[in-house]
């Protein structure tokens, strides 16, 4: 998924970051190591470490198959588009004379 323009860019291959995946399989498919056995795994250099979501059915349904990072990118893109639409509407408005 591409990032929404105007957002602070995090290089997922270079920068340390955190994400939360819906399950262990999607975490591993994205190239991360599971740190549930020990948080010390995250201290190793050049290792992509993250965690799978807790098994809370209500929250898992809300998260779906997306990671938190993907959900955040989607939300940011929607907000950016909403702000663009409102900016266009505001630019067309003519101030009322008093």
Percent of residues in β-strands: 5-15%
Number of DSSP-assigned strands: 3
Overall geometry comes to: elongated
- The main sheet orders its strands as 1-3-2
Instruction: Identify low-pLDDT runs.
Output: none
Number of domains: 1
Mind telling me the C-alpha Rg? Answer: 19 Å
End-to-end separation in angstroms reads 48 Å
Helix content: 25-40%
Largest sheet: 3 strands, parallel
Following the backbone from N to C, one meets helices and strands in this order, namely EHEEHH
Structural class: mainly alpha
* Total helical segments: 3
**Average predicted local confidence, pLDDT:** 77
Please tell me about this protein's structure.
Helix content is 39%, strand content 8%. It has one domain. By secondary structure, the protein is mainly alpha-helical. The longest helix has 25 residues, at 68-92. It has a three-stranded parallel β-sheet.
SSE map:
Layout: E1 20-21, H1 24-29, E2 33-34, E3 49-52, H2 57-63, H3 68-92
Parallel strand pairs: 1-3, 2-3
Any key phrases for this structure?
mainly alpha; 8% strand; 3 helices; 98 residues; three-stranded parallel sheet
């Amino acid at each position: 998924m591409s990032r929404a323009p105007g957002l602070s860019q995090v290089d997922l291959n270079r920068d340390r970051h955190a994400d939360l995946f819906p399950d262990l399989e999607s975490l591993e498919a994205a190239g991360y190591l599971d740190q549930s056995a020990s948080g010390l795994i995250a201290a190793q250099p050049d290792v992509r470490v993250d965690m799978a979501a807790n098994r809370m059915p209500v929250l898992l349904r809300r998260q779906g198959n997306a990671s938190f990072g993907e959900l955040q990118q989607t939300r940011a893109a929607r907000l950016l588009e909403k702000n663009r639409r409102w900016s266009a509407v505001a630019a067309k408005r003519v101030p009322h004379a008093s």
